[in-house]
Design brief:
Layout lengths: L12 H15 L11 H12 L7 H4 L3 E2 L9 E12 L5 E11 L4 E2 L1 H12 L2 E2 L1 H16 L3 E10 H4 L10 E6 L2 H4 L1 H11 L11
Helix pairs in contact: 1-2, 4-5
């Protein structure tokens, strides 16, 4: 997002900062008092960081793959990928970890790219179910593997700081395809490696 020009949504920085000032007034405070004078600019800069994923293409992130694997066809697992996202309903933080696995067919990808795909989708307004599916679908499209598994475990601050006010509640979502969905042994091995619950049932395709 440009600091001076309009962002891809056609909103200028000045307009964004003015909107923050309106919200500060609506909350009951004075945006012109000393402690809040620089707050609109800080909020806009924070939003640039929070939602940087809109400016990146996860498909391009996975375009460089490798076929020289010497026949490696066992599970590739990247676990405990931390992420920070924001709920699209309340703009409240979502904090958690992602476990990603795939069964290669002919191609593999650098493991840092898997973490970057998680980061790109997390840095957008999200619901956890959608993000879980997006990560799995991006890996499937890029690698055409024998199967993909994604588990997301996160705490939603919209439950902690508002509404029901229930801290310490984890939401767990899973999305499994191919061998991870159809072969209980493959699924069980993955869940064992990431410390997942054996009773979790895969859903979707």
């Amino acid at each position: 997002m440009s600091k001076d020009n309009q962002n891809p949504g056609g909103v200028s920085r000045d307009e964004a900062e003015a909107a923050v000032r309106v919200l500060l007034r609506w909350a009951g405070d004075d945006p012109d008092r000393e402690g809040l004078l620089d707050t609109p600019g800080r909020v806009v800069r924070a939003f640039e960081e929070y939602f940087a994923g809109y400016a990146e293409d996860p498909d391009k992130m996975l375009t460089r793959t490798f076929e020289e694997t010497d026949g490696y066809d066992e599970m590739v697992v990247l676990k405990d990928i931390t992420f920070e996202s924001h709920c699209e309903h309340h703009l409240a933080p979502i904090l958690g970890k992602v476990h990603v696995a795939y069964m290669p067919d002919q191609r593999v990808v650098g493991i840092s790219k898997l973490a970057r795909v998680v980061e790109i989708y997390a840095k957008r307004l999200q619901i956890q179910e959608k993000m879980t599916a997006q990560i799995a679908n991006a890996i499937t499209t890029a690698l055409q593997p024998k199967g993909v598994a994604v588990i997301v475990n996160a705490q939603h601050q919209c439950m902690t700081c508002r509404g029901v006010h229930k801290p310490g509640v984890d939401m767990v979502t899973s999305y499994m395809t191919g061998l991870f969905r159809d072969d209980p042994r493959t699924r069980g091995e993955f869940l064992s490696l990431v410390g997942g619950r054996k009773q979790m049932k895969p859903h979707n395709i």
